[in-house]
Amino acid sequence: MSLQIFILGLLSKEDHHPYSVKKMISKYTKDVLEITDGNLYYNFDFLYKKGLIQKVQDVQGDNRPSKTTYGITEEGRKALKESIYETFKHARSIQLLYSSLLFIDLVDHSRLSYMVSETILEIKKKIEWIEALHKESNENLEFDEFRRVEFADFIVMNSTESLKAELNAFERLQLLLQKQS
């Protein structure tokens, strides 16, 4: 979905052919995200068949295949906005929002802010639940279980640290959204 958001987002600004989109993905992600030609063309074909993008121009080249330039349709613009909202609604990791964040100017920031606040509450509840469960299980230990506790402590500590990092990222995003609303 994030590649489709990226494609639709770029096409919402101007028409492109798939190769130029691939170069922009490389540029925007500093080559962290690698897209294969097969995956890229599959997504273009998928969006085309769904009527979200359209062929704008076919340029024939000497001794090479033609380049097809695509543009976004009105249906594609609607789908892009809804995809961004859906991504925010279901994101439990800040990384899942990266492609949507690049096109955040196309949607309502206050609506996104509300969704992020819901995610923040869910993460806080999860952290509390893990810590409470861990505390309860440590209170009921018998002597032979102490060896396993070290590993359980490691798991709990790692889980809560990861969740706290996500919480911090979502809280920073919340501040950015509120500043721009």
UniProtKB/TrEMBL annotation:
<dbReference type="InterPro" id="IPR052509">
    <property type="entry name" value="Metal_resp_DNA-bind_regulator"/>
</dbReference>
<protein>
    <submittedName>
        <fullName>PadR family transcriptional regulator</fullName>
    </submittedName>
</protein>
<dbReference type="Pfam" id="PF03551">
    <property type="entry name" value="PadR"/>
</dbReference>
<dbReference type="InterPro" id="IPR036388">
    <property type="entry name" value="WH-like_DNA-bd_sf"/>
</dbReference>
<dbReference type="InterPro" id="IPR005149">
    <property type="entry name" value="Tscrpt_reg_PadR_N"/>
</dbReference>
<dbReference type="InterPro" id="IPR036390">
    <property type="entry name" value="WH_DNA-bd_sf"/>
</dbReference>
<feature type="domain" description="Transcription regulator PadR N-terminal">
    <location>
        <begin position="7"/>
        <end position="82"/>
    </location>
</feature>
